[in-house]
Amino acid sequence: MVLLVLDAYSKYPEVEIISSTAAGNAFPALERIFATHGIPEVLKTDDGPPFQGFPPQESNTLMAGS
């Protein structure tokens, strides 16, 4: 499976290969991308399985590492 993160302004893609779409696999991949490029001000998703069921503020807390 592939996790694709696309910068909305530059259209620059980042691709991570993940073994499943579970949040436990997607969030570490996002952390690696954000460690390289910084944490985005806005994160839009396709509402795929790793992002379903999280209120936006809880996802923000997960990404901030708090």
What would you note in describing this structure?
- With 66 residues, the protein is an alpha+beta fold.
- It is built from two helices and two strands; from the N terminus they run ββαα.
- The chain has helices at 23-37, 56-64, and strands at residues 2-6, 13-17.
- The chain has a two-stranded antiparallel sheet.
- The mean pLDDT is 80.
Number of helices: 2
Mean residue pLDDT: 80
Beta strand count: 2
- The SSE order reads EEHH
Alpha-beta content class: alpha+beta
Task: Please state roughly what percent of the residues sit in beta strands, choosing from under 5%, 5-15%, 15-25%, 25-35%, 35-45% or over 45%.
Answer: 15-25%
Question: Outline, from the CA principal axes?
Answer: globular
Contiguous runs where pLDDT drops below 50 for at least 5 residues = none
- Report helical residue fraction: 25-40%
**C-alpha-based Rg, rounded:** 11 Å
N→C terminal distance: 28 Å
Kindly report the spatial arrangement of strands forming the biggest sheet: 1-2
Major β-sheet, in short?
2 strands, antiparallel
